[in-house]
Protein 1
Amino acid sequence: MAIRVSLKNLGILRQADFSLGDMTIICGKNNTGKTYATYALFGYLWSWKNFLRVQISSQAIEALFKDGVTRIDITSFVRNSGNILKRGSQDYTEQLPRIFASRANHFKNTVFQVDVGTVPAAAVVGEILQRTIRFGEDDILSLSKAEGEKELVISLLLGEGSPGPPVHIVQEMLSDHILELLFERFFPHPFIASAERTGAAIFRKELNFARNRLLEEMSRTDRNIDPLDLLFKSYQDYPLPVKVNVDFIRRLEDVAKEDSFIAKDHPRILNDFADIIGGEYIAGSDDSIYFRPDRQRLKLTMDESSSAARSLLDIGFYLRHVAAPGQILMVDEPELNLHPENQRRIARLLARLVNVGVKVFITTHSDYIIRELNTLIMLNHDKPHLKRIARANGYQEDDLISSNQVRVYMAQEDLMPLEKGQKRRRRGHTLVPADIDPQLGIEASSFDKTIDQMNNILEEIVWGAE
């Protein structure tokens, strides 16, 4: 079952109802709310456990501390999953000012709702769970559930007389693990490449310097000040997706110590990515990141590198070092600073990611990306002439994608309802699903209209004198 998101009155977005496919695309002109929808979704996927809660009965907690073991029926939470999501969406909506680093009155009429349909009881009951929970340096709880069992067995691991954690901490820990059983299959872990990524790539050293100075100041200040609170305040002017993106770019040297499943199992994706950027990224021993152009020995710093190399820096490190099956890669305008040919290549690379198990969510202005995805959809049929065309143009089977894997939404302008005290209706935007035909691809009307206008002007210039 796909995640369905409903948004109302979020920034310039009046209404947005969309579901996630293996690849989800939001198209539209500038200032139509694409980024609002992206940031709201990212914030939810990043922090959903903080907003969803299940209530553990006091009897279960009492039994745990008295007898050392307790049992919880999982199916009762399955039956209540819709209400859990509804309350969690309401709590998340109240936190949108922090997600967007904006004033609360900007969100006074905002509605954010997530729905996953019916949580399959059979799938939840079929899960196997064996986990030990630590608190501080001690193992405090053991959680187990056998396949097919409806009950989760919780055992207290602390010895007699050992001070246990506060009751509310135990309740939160159990709540988190029950939520994982219920919803983790629906909510992919997100990675975001925001539109601010190019600037972060250039100034990553300055970001590290500013962080180190802040840590130094904290060591000298009042001991009663919460250092985490001080760190949060230092970044409070930036939306959560930007903060997460900047923090990833700041940590690239540590990120580079691991290999992703793509590096291990799908090296062709990395080779094709190297062709797009025209070289490779190198993590230096001096805490610097360099770019080495193809067939050259020199190493360029990020501010010496091309804008394309900078704009794809975090995506490159994600692919090589972080990506895991089931995650969702969210990219705000993947076409940034790319030549049309590379925009086509990035579309094919995104399709390959979908085919190896990584979900993709993008916003785009690029007709080249949409048209290339159209080609990948239209070629994905068992017809001799299509196979011939695919071979002749270098397409391979894992480049192709089916129409039922893709969701496309177009931002359309309309008039918003009058609010109290208003004399004129403001203009807003609505996300409207685009038609996707297995034979003809995506109907992207906003691009088609502009292209038709340009073609008409060109025809008048060429033939208008006759």
Protein 2
Amino acid sequence: MVGVSTKTESAISIIGVWQHVNFHGRQIWFLPVARLDPANQKRFIPHSVKLFWGLITHFYKLKKSDFWQFHRMDLAFAVGVVPKLKFSYFIHTQDGGLTGNNSDSIWRFFGRLHKAIERIVVKRARSVVVFNQDYATSVAKWNPFTIFSPTWWDPELITNVDHTHAEHRVLWVGRLEIPKDPGLALEAFSRLVEMDPFFPWSLSILGSGTLSGDLLAKISGFAPDVARRVTLHGRMRPLDVAKMMSESGLFLMTSHPGYEGFPRVLVEALASGLPSVVTTGSDTGSLIQSGLNGFVTSRNPSEIAEKLFLSRSLNRSIASESVKSLSAPQLVKKIFIHTTPLKGKVNK
């Protein structure tokens, strides 16, 4: 595995040195080629540039492999020019997901260039996996060895579906950035408390980002009875996020349309038994069946609050059953069958 070391991963601190890492009980070799904070969207140097430069700098340290996986278009384009390199390309966004008006990626300023480079990468790839069904149909026109795959939940991570939960806790998980629109979650929650003030509603927001200061200011402007019910937890480890999901009552997702590929966080929330309220465009996998495992709403805060109120009566078992087929052991095996040669080592 080749990637980045974040500020929260003190154990992975030596850039450019292969390290044996215990990742959720699995032993892997990992080469960090850059250090960055993914939550810092006000960075002077774009993350893409840091990662690209790190990979090129340490490219000679990469192990000889028969096949590669690339999960970033820019890196696939840069390394894919190596003669005879065989690789599979993974697309995690929808068409225009990184270049739309609500994106926080540097590529939003170079939409046409991004599209042109991605088409080149797709055509060079031996196989392509797209985590958005609509975009997969378009990509298949460039490369016939393209498949769509939903994202998955990990049964080794999501284990406490029947855990005693706080019915009143609304959970929001994501980067505190414009594409995810956490401010809308606050507005909707404020309306929810106004609608039903005697129920002990609370809102837990998990994640970090450049909007944290704006959110704190918005919370301080709420009535005291609303403000005291909101907690910003910051970024948390996957295991801790899973625990919070198992202990919460409802899940709220407020992403802008056009951004999400196939949102893992929604899959994990449903797998944890959380009835989910999502804004139009957030649920790109059409997982929500309104009135059964959650509701799809407009971006009107009052309507979101109303759907959260109604979701209290929904069955948690129905929520978890709705994504039972999206467990990692079932989906990942299919992906590797599609993307990996019968013989040879693989680098990701």
Protein 3
Amino acid sequence: MRVLVTGHAGYIGAVLIPVLHGEGHEVIGLDSMLFDGCDLLAVESPDRLIARDLRDVTAADLSGCDAIVHLGALSNDPLGDLNPGVTYEINRDASVRLAELARDSGIERFVFASSCSLYGAGVGDELLDENAAFNPVTPYGESKIQVEQALSGLANDDFSPTYMRNATAYGVSPRQRLDIVVNNLTAWATVTGQVRLQSDGTPWRPLVHVRDICEAIRAVLAAPRELVHDEAFNVGRTEENYQIRDVATIVGEVVEGSVVTIADGAGADIRDYRVTFDKIADTLPDFSPQWTVRAGAEELHEAFVEAGLGEEHLDGPSYIRLRRLAELIDSGRLSDEVRWLG
């Protein structure tokens, strides 16, 4: 197929491109290129690049496409909190408009990168499935709910959306991020010898390797339409729900000589939920997630050592999305509405 990938130049997209190429798909990348040059490894290029803000997509950009994988968004809770109005403008309004253009252009498959963040704060020890109540605690999580609901309203015989509720991602990507928990803890341990917890470590969080997310997308694109039409899937493995303090312990064991510490001012995190992934396992037998947090931490540590990761990277703009946007805004290259200037 000819697959348009929005956000192809981001953390997940940079891993997804070679996966789709491996399936024989032609990949058209569409990205505003906010993180161009923030590379840990060499980035594989799409077959064609459209450098465009998601809010400015046209029907012509979608011409000839068979499917869309929609990754493009302000990509986590802190970014969403930076400017909630812009978060809704990009993550919700532009996403719905993209889907409407896809439907009107005759593009049948639309794979939306949603998030387990929409569960927000879970209920006790209950494992949440796709029918669980939503309880978002951030604009990012709320926007994911609203897009899913809007896409479901667009679904018909000719337009088939699927909602991939990814667990919290981790792992090595050419466009690396250090502002997600496993990557952050492993980076700090590698560089400073401290596994630095930002919370008290008690919250539960489902975790999934970025490559397993991409394999789930591959499986959905290959699946019969009737299995995935207007369906939501939690993406991950049930065994990979962790309390953050247990993740810290694993990282401490992987990075020899490191010790677990708690950052100044660390408190409880209200994002606290456990998720079951039985539905995707039962529906898509072609999807078989391979990664564990321990294996991911080992991969990350090795990659960080090889790349010469230093203290300047731990809170700098190269791998911290919020810092990158702040740098671009402060330098006058980006507006407060997250648009390029000049």
